[in-house]
Amino acid sequence: TLHETYDKCIAYYNDSIFNDTLLEKRLVGEFDTALAEKQFCMYLQPQMTPEGQMLGAEALVRWQHPNRGLIFPGDFINVFERTGLIYRLDKYVWELAVQKLSEWQKHGKNELYISINISAKDFYYMDVYKTITTLVEKYGIIPKTLKLEITETAIMTGISGELEILEQFRNYGFQVEIDDFGSGYSSLNTLKDMDVDVLKIDMGFLRTTKPDRIKRSMSILNNIIDLSKTLGLSVITEGVETKEQVTALTKMGCRIYQGYYFSKPIPIEDFENTYLK
Ligand code: C2E
Ligand code: MG
Ligand code: MG
Ligand code: MG
């Protein structure tokens, strides 16, 4: 029996933990090459009005790996955050976004915006403010077309002066957005302490299936939307997958949506062919 248990442990170790760590190590080892060979690409997911007008998009990174295929952020963002590589990836993705905005603006599309994700870890490894403003000045884009997404947890646990940096960003003219609002520990405290422009409601509220929970979620959503109005913030609901969700939330006063109901994140070329022709 002791042997059996031991074998099981080994099997378990081999199947999951060992392979996961090994895969992580490989991904980390492949990072420099991937960056140099432009294997990371920016997908865009549109943000829409209930009537179907596209207002802008969120930039979401994908890793087009030469032998592993398309890898999603869930498989590498955490790893890169833990190993201190994330800031190099983010800097790269931010530049793709700013480049794209500058191209659109050269064609007179001055209203379209792109939201970029800022990891909490970015603040430890670089001067986020300087990095982003330098990019914006290099490409000469309109600051308000760049939206900066940051999670509430990242801000509230931040020890690198994040609150002050966000204020500087707003003064510069960027729009600042709390991502995954409602999934952190202290959502309401966050609102008390920080000045932002947009709340992006966490999709967890929409992922419940038990009928009584759906009712409760809807009531919380209703209140978040009211609250954001009172505070003068605009609100985006993320993760809408059905028409019913859009209808219900629109009745509550939400005007901007991002979710599979409208579109999944798609390659830039598809995005432009679908929305900018
Ligand atoms: P996020 O910033 O909250 O982005 C939204 C995620 O929800 C995206 O997953 C998007 O594909 C997914 N999503 C949107 N609508 C729906 C829907 O209707 N149903 C479902 N089930 N999912 C939906 P994705 O692209 O896999 O990204 C996951 C997370 O990885 C992002 O969450 C963000 O935290 C992080 N991430 C992605 N790209 C970057 C990046 O360039 N830099 C950094 N630092 N983080 C990134
Ligand atoms: Mg985001
Ligand atoms: Mg989110
Ligand atoms: Mg997230």
Number of DSSP E strands: 10
Structure annotation, total helices: 12
Question: Could you give the order of the helices and strands?
Answer: HHEEEHHEHHEHHEHEHEHEEH
Report the end-to-end length measured between terminal Cα atoms.
Answer: 68 Å
Largest sheet: 10 strands, mixed
Mean pLDDT: 91
Measured as a percent range, the helix fraction is: 40-55%
- The gyration radius over C-alpha positions equals 20 Å
- Name the overall outline: globular
Strand proportion, as a percent range, falls in: 15-25%
What does it look like?
- It comes from Butyribacter intestini.
- This is EAL domain-containing protein.
- The model is unreliable at 8-13 (pLDDT under 50).
- 33% of the residues are buried.
- With 277 residues, the chain is of the alpha/beta class.
- The protein is built from twelve helices and ten strands.
- The radius of gyration is 20 Å and the shape is globular.
- Strand 6, helix 9 (187-193) and strand 7 (198-201) form a beta-alpha-beta unit.
- Helix 4 (86-106) runs parallel beside helix 6.
- Strands 1, 2, 3, 4, 5, 6, 7, 8, 9 and 10 form a ten-stranded mixed sheet that branches.
- The chain starts with a helix and ends with a helix.
- The structure holds ligand C2E and magnesium ion (3 copies).
- One magnesium ion binds at residues 58, 117, 149, 179.
Q: Keywords for this structure?
A:
single chain, 277 residues, alpha/beta, 10-stranded mixed beta sheet, 10 strands, globular, binds magnesium ion, EAL domain-containing protein
